[in-house]
Amino acid sequence: SQQGEEDPQALSIQEGENATMNCSYKTSINNLQWYRQNSGRGLVHLILIRSNEREKHSGRLRVTLDTSKKSSSLLITASRAADTASYFCATEETSGSRLTFGEGTQLTVNP
Amino acid sequence: EAQVTQNPRYLITVTGKKLTVTCSQNMNHEYMSWYRQDPGLGLRQIYYSMNVEVTDKGDVPEGYKVSRKEKRNFPLILESPSPNQTSLYFCASSLFGQEQFFGPGTRLTVL
User: Fold this and answer.
1) In chain A, which end has fewer C-beta atoms inside a 10 angstrom radius, N or C?
2) Closest residue by Cα to residue A60 from A81, A42, A75
3) Does the beta carbon of A91 lie under 8 angstroms from any beta carbon of chain B?
4) Quick check: A88 contacting B, CB < 8 Å?
């Protein structure tokens, strides 16, 4: 079963704009992670945010976590064409160490 | 270089012919996992392993087997492949509660 659900499924923006992707999940979690995947390639880890954290930054990335709403958002500021990729959220449930992925958001940044 | 390797990267086979996809990591990670990725379905976990000789079913284990005889290796075995197992397969590893490192993927076609 899919734990995380990303929204929107697809997002198309212009270079320089900000991109926001959302993730909702269903159960209690230890942490939530965001990954990026270029077409057909392996996933690359972006940010991990723990359940007791509310916000985390890494370069142009900002992740928020609201455990009361069971949701997270990934903000990419000043987007670049090279940011074009699929972005996935994944949750590590408190019941175990499994990581469950959502279906992803396809981001296209137009030059 | 810290990495997860998978072999083969591409494989075309026929229904019923047993195959093994190897996965190896050099980071001394306890946790290893196999996923399959299909269009519109995101990543679905097949099996995972918390340590040597400890394996558990993920969301879609039917038709697959795994073993964890050594910490670094986690092969995926398809005893009798069928066309519905045509997919892109990823192996991943991590320390508990940390981000996962993904292999480059194995594209499998079962005719």
Assistant:
1) N
2) A75
3) no
4) yes
pLDDT at B41: 83
pLDDT of residue B39: 87
CB contact under 8 A, B45 and A103: no
To test the contact with chain A by mutation, choose from B99, B107, B109 the residue with the greatest count of A C-beta atoms within 10 A, namely B99
End-to-end CA gap in chain B:
36
Interface of A with B in 26-55 (CB under 8 A): 30-31, 33, 35, 40-45, 48
pLDDT, tens only, B22-77: 999 999 999 999 999 998 888 999 999 999 999 999 999 999 999 999 999 999 99
CB contact under 8 A, A40 and B107: yes
Beta carbons within 8 Å of A11's beta carbon, 6+ residues apart: A19, A21, A105, A106, A107, A108
Residue-level pLDDT at A2: 47
Cα torsion B33, A41, A16, A101: sign: negative
CA distances to A13, A29, A93, B10, B42 from B4, in Å: 33, 26, 24, 16, 20
Q: Is the confidence at residue A1, as pLDDT, over 60? A: no
Choose among A96, A93, A83: nearest CA to A21: A83
| Structure token digits, residue B21 | 């996809």
Tell me the chain A residues in contact with residue B33 when contact means C-beta distances shorter than 8 Å: 98-99
Q: Which amino acid is at A53?
A: E
